[in-house]
Give the backbone structure.
Amino acid sequence: MKKLLFSFFFLISIFSFGQVLSSQKFQSGKFTIPHQEPEPNISPADCEAFKSGKFKINDKTSGVTEITREGSKQIEHNLDSGVKVEYKIEWIDHCNYKLSFVKILDNPKNEKVLENANSNVQIIKADSGGYEFKIKFDKFNLEDKNKMLLN
């Protein structure tokens, strides 16, 4: 049970546990979000800079997660648990993308990993150090905000 709870919070805290969705849209049993324009203080050119590269999220619950993004592949490696997961990244527009679970690459401590947990992400603010984003998980009634730092 402890491992299941850890796994749940690991997935959620990759982007830090957050607020409950205020509205929901379901299509064919999967959660989708409508196209959203970037916040007024962010331009599509700002978002383009984050389509590939190395990033880091430092979360109080799951610790540090390093992210490598190249093409349509994103690899997330949690430095505390050792869990490494591959996602497919699909850019919906300049500042919105969808992450789809592909496979577990490494799990040295045999942590329970929630497979097929997909999410929609919107970049809401960018600066030279990284970007703030809003994430909505498709299988959980959750929305969250966090910051992705350039690594």
Q: What stands out?
A: The CA atoms of residues 24 and 31 lie 7 Å apart. The first strand starts at residue 19 and ends at 20.
